[in-house]
Specification:
Strand content: 35-45%
Radius of gyration: 13 Å
Number of strands: 10
Structural class: mainly beta
Shape: globular
CATH topology: Rieske Iron-sulfur Protein
Order of helices and strands: EEEEEEEHEEE
CATH architecture: 3-layer Sandwich
Mean pLDDT: 86
CATH class: Mainly Beta
CATH superfamily: Rieske [2Fe-2S] iron-sulphur domain
Number of domains: 1
Helix content: under 10%
Distance between the termini: 31 Å
Strand order of the largest sheet: 4-3-2-10
C-alpha cells in the first residue's frame, strides 16, 4: 500500500501511482481522495459536476453518475493538514514510484 503526500490545491494537486491518479476533493457533502478516472470509461472525474439535486458526480465524457457518498464511505484513508494531504492508496495499486502533477479541478470538487 503506497503512502503518498501531495498538495490539495495548485501545482502537484494530483498523485499518480502506476496507472491510477488520485486527487483531493472537497464538496458540500464531505472531503475525500478521489480516483481521477471514471470507473466506467476512464473520463476525467476531476472535471465532473454534480447531478442536479443529487450527491452524484457526472462524468464530463459520457454523463454517467458516480455516487459521492459511496466514494466517501469506500474512500482512500487520508488526512489533510493545511494545503497537503497524506493518503494510503489501495492494495490494488502496485507502484514502485508515485509522481505528482497538476490537474484542473471543477468548482464543485474544489469546495468553491
Amino acid at each position: 500500500m503506497p503512502v503518498v503526500t501531495f498538495t490539495v490545491e495548485g501545482r502537484d494537486n494530483c498523485v499518480t501511482a502506476g496507472v491510477e491518479a488520485y486527487m483531493w476533493a472537497r464538496t458540500a457533502y464531505g472531503s475525500f481522495v478521489l480516483p481521477v478516472r471514471c470507473p466506467h470509461r476512464g473520463g476525467p472525474l476531476n472535471l465532473a459536476n454534480f447531478e442536479p439535486g443529487r450527491t452524484r458526480l457526472v462524468c464530463p465524457w459520457h454523463g454517467r453518475a458516480t455516487s459521492v457518498t459511496k466514494a466517501i464511505k469506500a474512500g482512500v484513508p487520508a488526512v489533510r493538514r493545511g494545503n497537503r494531504v497524506t493518503a494510503v492508496l489501495p492494495d490494488t495499486v502496485k507502484a514502485e514510484v508515485c509522481t505528482t502533477e497538476h490537474r484542473p479541478v471543477s468548482k464543485v470538487l474544489s469546495g468553491r
